[in-house]
Write a structure and sequence with these properties.
GO terms for molecular function: phosphatidate cytidylyltransferase activity. The protein is built from 20 helices and six strands. The chain is mainly alpha-helical.
Amino acid sequence: NLQESESENRLDGETASDSESKSEFGGSAPVPTSDDTPEVLNRALSNLSSRWKNWWVRGILTLAMITFFFIIIYLGPMVLMTIVMCVQIKCFHEIITIGYNVYHSYDLPWFRTLSWYFLLCVNYFFYGETVTDYFFTLVQREEPLRILSKYHRFISFALYLTGFCMFVLSLVKKHYRLQFYMFGWTHVTLLIVVTQSHLIIHNLFEGMIWFIVPISCVICNDIMAYMFGFFFGRTPLIKLSPKKTWEGFIGGFFATVLFGLLLSYIMSGYRCFTCPVEFNNDTNSFTVDCEPSELFQLQEYNIPLVLQSVVGWKTVRMYPFQIHSIALSTFASLIGPFGGFFASGFKRAFKIKDFANTIPGHGGIMDRFDCQYLMATFVNVYIASFIRGPNPSKLIQQFLTLRPDQQLHIFNTLKAHLVDKGMLGSLEEA
């Protein structure tokens, strides 16, 4: 009976081993949260119930964030990449701060310094790879950049190894276990935050539409699931998030798929959204001008016989990208929310309401981007699996950096291959 009463007093999902770990590491007192709603909104909404007050606060701040999102899209890809970097740093700061406070890591030598140092090392590695990949001609043109590019991975490893040695030297008696725990905490945070933000940058270079549509679908699903759940929600969806309902989950799915189709149709007609982001060596700036691929050219599709009697059409004209948008919006609606559920479980484990109080009514930056990181990975995998093929321009760039004898060997190999295929004669005649 005593054991049963002790288990009832714990939080949902908390085990005896959790409690033992907490006592060993100094306990996990809840991180205090305060009402960070602006005073002007508190006065304006003072006559409303807490439920409706929260609805209005979330709504107003959501509109403000969407407006800011439109502004940074208008400012172009460089600003978008800068914002992604800032969001990544803020998310890392929020997660590291939770570990720092909950496990009372104040006395651990160099903990925060090493955490930020490892963030710097990982960013240097990932963004250095990106610079070498997308700014290849610029890198080859500048001698210092060419040297850094050539030895990039060795330099990255040396930087990380320095941090690793610093961590070993910082180990102190009576804190070994906690120090290794926080070492793992830092690296898991880096894996979740930095790797995913790096994939977002890669998606952006494939074309702004691959960046905007997935993010917008997640935002739409979050808003519509909240709206449907607020007005029609009756059936709880998952214990990790008691406020989530089946009505909101299902309503958000259909609304997001429809939104994805409409947004994709609008954006597919503009080259500034569909063209890959490339670096122009003549102007030393980014360009998004190209001949649209087949994905962004209207095609005529036959409507299944079952639906012809319902809609009254036999064919429909749409962009092939809209078909892909169904896959993106479906993932954003059905799988994307599990990123939020994961974050909810994380917060419940440490008895905190939000990751931070950065955005009134919404919590921290990580509270808003918990689903976005999962979405970024899916989009990157989807592009690699179904969209992206070999890039001829990048292959030529790499070919031109080879030694003359290596270039001649590749030329002869390609010539022999074309002759065997019977293509060389026809090319010469043309």
